[in-house]
Amino acid sequence: MYAFEIERPKSVDEALAALGAEEAQPISGGQTLIPTLKQRLAMPSKLVSLSGIDELRYLRREGDALMIGGGATHGMVAREAATDFPGLAKLAGKIGDPAVRNRGTIGGSIANNDPSACYPSAAMACGATIVTNSREIAADEYFQGMFMTALEEGEIVTGVRFPIPQASAYMKFEQIASRFPLVGVFVARFADRVGVGVTGASNNGVLRWREAEEALAANFSPDALADVTAPRASDMIADLHGTAEYRAHLIPVMTKRAVAAAE
Amino acid sequence: MSDVTMTVNGKTVSRAVRGNELLVEFLREQLRLTGTHVGCDTSQCGACCVHVNGELVKACTIFAAEADGAEVSTIEGQANPDGSLNVIQQAFQDHHGLQCGFCTPGMVMAAASLLKENPKPSEQEIRHYLQGNICRCTGYHNIVRAIMAASGQEVEGGAIAAE
Ligand SMILES: Cc1cc2nc3c(=O)[nH]c(=O)nc-3n(C[C@H](O)[C@H](O)[C@H](O)COP(=O)(O)OP(=O)(O)OC[C@H]3O[C@@H](n4cnc5c(N)ncnc54)[C@H](O)[C@@H]3O)c2cc1C
Ligand code: FES
Ligand code: FES
């Protein structure tokens, strides 16, 4: 790792002030950033640790929505969302392993927007709102392709607001070495619509499978997907873990399983 | 450099650390607590697992500065006050839960976290919880048996040492 200093502010305001410094970068759980720093793929002069900011570590019910602070760890979401939003709690409980879940945060995951990250699929399927220190951004506008988001320099994710679906499930086909999803599908059924968010598959990052959303809104059953046009293999990631065709094939398979499992 | 103060295995320690100093480097190189191992240094293997404020954490994937003010426990703090092995450590010995022993400190720390959250885990729950702890020797079977035994549950075939 290159040399840098670490600051540990206690509030969002202090963090934003610290982030004003040249080449300063936030660190939340560090479960993505520390491996990146070890590979010398980042060269910040200063890390601003968000992990000591209590005001970012919460889950709370806001009417029909669940508001999750950017500093909430995957472990907190797995435990504390279990009653209000079991589909999301189960997604969080399958990220990495227990030690990763005790450090990694939803804010870090949403900010990083790894094309194989789990949370973005739920955010897209539910039509979540990404809340930052300065504004609110709809999930559809926030995720802008692999590792690309609407965040500006120095802007931090302070929370994510999820409308709570009537039923939902996340199905993750694990890439066996990393346990990231090779393909992961989040299905969310609301009173008036269905959302289908797909991660791990596309070269363009997380996507919504809109044809499936329409078919499932008319008939929420795995059979409804039989004749639906699937996302094209030509847009899919191909690597040593799976071909583009294989990933494309997994999308309907995992979507059907998620529909069958939705609770 | 910045100064950190933390409690490690019940003792308060204060040291100067580099910004990019990992907790595992701090424990091993500054405090000479070399029971916490570095297997991969890429957050995969779990040999470096310690507890920070009671939670299982990979010490290769947290900076020492981030543990400022925290309570840290390592494998060196796990034995009973009289120096004898604690229940989990003893079960690993009795059930042959280690061969080379490289992964064992992390396994014991992970097992302690599991049993705190779930005092009577099923075999499936144990295997699931250990997803982030890799062992190249044992094939995991005896590790799982040891944790079953440490939780006071019946283990088929009993203890190996007693056979
Ligand atoms: C072994 C292992 C397995 C994993 N498996 C999975 C998996 O199955 N599914 C999955 O989704 N993820 C997985 N992850 C990644 C994990 O979920 C990370 O915790 C997460 O992607 C990043 O969150 P973090 O809090 O650790 O962020 P950090 O690593 O601290 O930061 C990541 C990036 O986001 C920036 N950042 C951090 N917080 C904020 C913020 N609040 N606002 C703006 N920018 C911010 C940082 O500057 C950095 O660029 C795994 C990680 C490991 C090590
Ligand atoms: S050394 Fe930390 S996980 Fe392998
Ligand atoms: S006993 Fe050798 S790695 Fe586990």
UniProtKB/TrEMBL annotation, chain A:
Origin superkingdom: Bacteria
Residues of the FAD-binding PCMH-type domain: 1-167
InterPro entries in alphabetical order: CO_DH_flav_C (IPR005107), CO_DH_flav_C_dom_sf (IPR036683), Diverse_Substr_Oxidored (IPR051312), FAD-bd_PCMH (IPR016166), FAD-bd_PCMH-like_sf (IPR036318), FAD-bd_PCMH_sub1 (IPR016167), FAD-bd_PCMH_sub2 (IPR016169), Mopterin_DH_FAD-bd (IPR002346)
Molecular function per GO: FAD binding; oxidoreductase activity
Protein keywords: FAD, Flavoprotein, Oxidoreductase
Keyword Oxidoreductase: yes
Entry-linked PANTHER family: XANTHINE DEHYDROGENASE SUBUNIT C-RELATED
Protein name, entry field: Carbon-monoxide dehydrogenase
Originating organism: Roseivivax halodurans JCM 10272
TrEMBL record, chain B:
Domain named 2Fe-2S ferredoxin-type: residues: 2-78
Keywords: 2Fe-2S, Iron, Iron-sulfur, Metal-binding, Oxidoreductase
Superkingdom assignment: Bacteria
GO molecular function, one term: oxidoreductase activity
Keyword Iron-sulfur: yes
Protein name: Carbon monoxide dehydrogenase
InterPro entries assigned: 2Fe-2S-bd (IPR002888), 2Fe-2S-bd_dom_sf (IPR036884), 2Fe-2S_ferredoxin-like_sf (IPR036010), 2Fe-2S_ferredoxin-type (IPR001041), Beta-grasp_dom_sf (IPR012675), Diverse_Oxidoreductases (IPR051452)
